[in-house]
Amino acid sequence: MTTLKPLLAKNRSWALQRRQRNPHYFQQNVHSQQPHSLWIGCSDSRVPAEVLTGAHPGELFVHRNIANMVVAGDDNFMSVLQYALEYLKVSRIVLCGHYGCGGVQAAVALPDLPLYGENSPLARRITQLREALAPGLAKADRIGDEKERLNQLVEANVLAQFSHLIAAEPVLNIWRAGAELDVFGCVYDLQSGHLKELIQQSAEETSP
Ligand SMILES: [Zn+2]
């Protein structure tokens, strides 16, 4: 049997340390939040948004799911996006993927997995991810080194989800209203702990 005790003990010691450093640490966030950024990342336990950016409570509005997917038909994701932009008025969105992503690996290997053909939420998401990665999969087939191939696909996934994000209604509404909003696509390296920018956009794409 497991208990909450270790987590509660760490929580109390964290809260105490914070108050010792700054007696107003918790008070400043009690009545409202004004996060500067919306973070869209993978649920992977090794990619904790606040920890790797050194952010404090109140700085990041966070949505995480398997393989940092942006799906227009996903009310959970879309409500977070709408709330962050329309109500919290964040001026920055960070979409963050990471090397070694199990979701991307599962999407690549899907036809060989027991998950394939299963009717479950997980199987549906991984199937959707594989579809989003289809163009990247064709290109990556030419890469011999397996690790390099998966790294390429992780980056291709960030770019694919980024293209969904900048076409999402709440994002377009902000840009069309002339408000400031910068959208970034990044990848996190588990080995170095470094975040790398892959792509950025600050206005609606105009067709050439
Ligand atoms: Zn992941």
Quote the distance from N terminus to C terminus. 62 Å
Bound molecules: zinc ion
Regarding CATH, which class? Alpha Beta
Shape: globular
- What is the residue-averaged pLDDT? 95
Uncertain residue ranges:
none
Widest β-sheet, arrangement of strands: 2-1-3-4-5
The computed structural class is alpha/beta
Q: What summary fits the major beta sheet?
A: 5 strands, mixed
CATH architecture: 3-Layer(aba) Sandwich
Identify the CATH homologous superfamily: Carbonic anhydrase
Put simply, the count of helices is 7
Tell me the total number of β-strands: 5
Keywords:
208 residues, Beta-carbonic Anhydrase, Chain A, 5 strands, 44% helix, 16% strand, binds zinc ion, EC 4.2.1.1, Carbonic_anhydrase, Carbonic anhydrase, Carbonic_anhydrase_CS
Short overview:
The protein is α/β, with parallel strands linked by helices. The protein has seven helices and five strands, in the order αβαβαβααααββ. It has a single domain, classed as Beta-carbonic Anhydrase, Chain A, CATH 3.40.1050.
Describe this structure in words.
The structure is a single chain. The protein is an alpha/beta fold and 208 residues long. The chain has one domain (37-43, 59-201): Beta-carbonic Anhydrase, Chain A (3-Layer(aba) Sandwich), CATH 3.40.1050.10. Helices cover 44% and strands 16% of the residues. The protein is built from seven helices and five strands, in the order αβαβαβααααββ. The chain has helices at residues 5-21, 49-53, 75-87, 102-109, 121-140, 146-165, 169-176, and strands at 37-42, 60-65, 92-98, 182-188, 195-201. Strands 2-1-3-4-5 form a five-stranded mixed β-sheet. A hairpin with a 6-residue loop joins strand 4 (182-188) and strand 5. The longest helix is centred in the middle third of the chain and has 20 residues, at 121-140. The protein is globular, with a radius of gyration of 19 Å. It starts with a helix and ends in a 7-residue tail after the last strand.
